[in-house]
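Tokens for chain A. Residues wanted.
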């Protein structure tokens, strides 16, 4: 008998699923969920597409300093969302 799995459980396990780091039983549960849930299947496909693009050297070229600007922007946003008391 296969125990049903929730979309939330799928999202938490998606990275391990894509990386092939799950035991066979849990993997089967995820695959059954994917066969029945179009939303989670779309998330899986999107994740695989993103990983494929990021893995290509020529796919994304960011301007010099972009990573640092992005880090600073995320930090500012995080601080504004959770101001220190």
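Reply:
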């Amino acid at each position: 008998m296969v125990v049903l799995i929730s979309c939330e459980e799928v999202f938490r396990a998606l990275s391990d699923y894509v990386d092939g780091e799950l035991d066979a039983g849990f993997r089967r549960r995820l695959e059954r969920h994917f066969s029945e849930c179009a939303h989670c299947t779309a998330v899986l496909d999107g994740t695989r597409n993103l990983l494929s693009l990021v893995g290509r050297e020529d796919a994304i070229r960011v301007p010099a300093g972009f990573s640092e600007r992005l880090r600073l922007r995320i930090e500012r946003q995080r601080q504004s969302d959770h101001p220190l008391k």
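The chain has a mean pLDDT of 86. Helices lie at 7-18, 24-36, 38-55, 66-81.
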